[in-house]
Amino acid sequence: MGRKPKERKIGTVTAKQMSAAVDLVLKDNYSIRAAAERFNIKFQTLHRYVTKKRRNPDIPLAGMAPNYAVRRIFSAEQEDELGEYITKCSKMAYGISTKECRKLAFEMAIRNNIKVPDSWHVCKSAGVEWMRHFLKRCRNISIRQPEACSLSRLTSFNPYNVGLFLDNLESVLRRIPQVADGNRIFNLDESGVTTTHKPRKILAEKGSKQVNQCTSAERGALITICSIVSAAGTYLPPALVFPRKYFKAHMLAGAPAGSLGLANTSGWMTSDLFIQVLDHFIKFTNSSSENPTLLIYDNHESHISLATVEKARKFGVNILTLPPHCSHHMQPLDVSVFGPFKSYYNAAVDSWMLRNPGIPMTIYQVAECVGEAHPKAFTPANIIAGFKRSGIYPLNRSVFSEADFLNASVTDRPIDLESPSISFQAPKNHDLNKETNKTNLKCDSTDNTEKTDGKRSTDFVPPEAFRGFPKAASRKTNRKPRQRGKSKIITDSPEKHALIEKEKEKELNTRKGMKKTKRVLADRDTDELKKPKKPAAESYVCKDSDSSDSDNDVSVTLADSSGDENYWFPDLEKEPDFFKQPEINDFVLVEFPNKIFYIAKVISEIVHGNEYEVSFLRKCRKMGGCFVFPATPDMAAVQKNEIKWVLPKPNPVKNKRF
What we know:
The protein has helices spanning about 15-25, 30-40, 45-55, 75-90, 100-110, 120-125, 130-135, 150-155, 160-175, 270-285, 305-315, 325-330, 330-355, 365-375, 380-390, 430-445, 465, 495-525; strands spanning about 185-195, 220-230, 235-240, 260-265, 295, 315-320, 450, 455, 535-545, 555-560, 585-590, 595-605, 610-615, 620, 625-630, 635-640, 645, 650. With about 650 residues, the chain is of the alpha+beta class. It is found in: Nucleus. One of its GO terms (cellular component) is nucleus.
């Protein structure tokens, strides 16, 4: 909450009150102190005006009160126009600094032919003294330190995205009446806690230039906490992701009862770990096809996978995703729970540091601090308030006002819903172009009017008329539009089929990338890997390049071709295995374009009998011209027709160091 503005101490007595008090002294023979007490006027002030009236009995009524507006540049109505413009710009997240406000005041004075001091013309801006008194007169404006907010968050929270999410929510509630009860509506979200806390305020000596508080490290280790709450005000035991390769049970010492422990080297949630979180959710909610649930969370990549959707459909979990970059307004956990949780967690860590001086906090004490802070923040009142404030439960379409969408009005543009690049439909009962045009007209208003005694005149030019509100330029249309994010019911069949197609496309791109890498390596290593020669056979040693011991070295006999037309083929009777079906761990000869051959080892079978994953060997001149596996495996997928021969089983050789 901001500070309450100080009450004005000067100029609070009107001219009529002062005149009545003076007449009481001069005509009714009241004492100055008695009259001042009766009208609640300071004795010295009334004495000054009594003396003034005695010297000049014909003084007008206007002279009985101080005229603070004698040197004002703008009238009260004009300053109100300027104040409204400044306030609206700040609500649009494009606030004006004091320096920019002074320039704006000078420009407004020049546009309206208002006389200003000469110093304004020299500096091309209003003076510091004017700025100071302007802030005193405009009680609803003060100098504030804004919080940084990304452009994505500001522009994504708009009427269209919110309306689409509420349409999807209403569709689920009507289609599955069992989840309409608040007990079956859940929200899931992750937040990060670290071993380095934010210290609380402490008592210290007045006037100290710097006050420090001990923390464990500069940055600390990140632990992800995944929380799940219901619209009825209850919560499920959280899941903690520790920055380790393997999870150990002692990491959860002190955590809330029933908590799930997970491990990942980065400490972040992944698609594989999220499957375990979903199992955790199903276990505690008893979700099934006969007892379905509604789970609401964001569009993070780890939350949306084909495996997640299939498991959710199997156990009756209906998943609804929030619009992208809107969690600060529409995620119940973000709205009212995680804020208090972070405060209580910092307090718990601070208390632990005081109890253990000189010992840095590690990830093994995080669960204890989470267990202390979690029940204090995850109260029914906080959880229910989050669902209500976001309009999810009870369902409330009017929870957000036009003022809440002012941030997005900066980039409002009419959208052509018939364009093939737009892959979504407008929410029902919502005219997107109408909403956009309404905002544009409001922001681009050029109503040159001024309030004067209840009447309006066309003489004054307000700031929005010559400067306008912040507005983004039109988009470039010569580039391919990217797919727009949106709220989705990912457990519905259309979204599931879209995920299947996405998985297939991703797998196809991976294979293409492997083949492309293989061709690039073939072109780069053409000079080193020579063609097999026709006249004689040559022995090659295959071994791991990382191994210094060659006990497991193998020798294979390979014939090389020296011409472009005639190739040596093995005798089928002598070498029958050359033409057999490749098997795992076989050494094979793979043919590339231009009749170039490479030795490879079969790793796995991708498509039964048609496609294999192989690891290529590389010729090493420093080791006697033998073939070795490179330090970084050279993996690729090859077709069956590209594998010309299966090389004979390698013969063991003597232990020899190269």
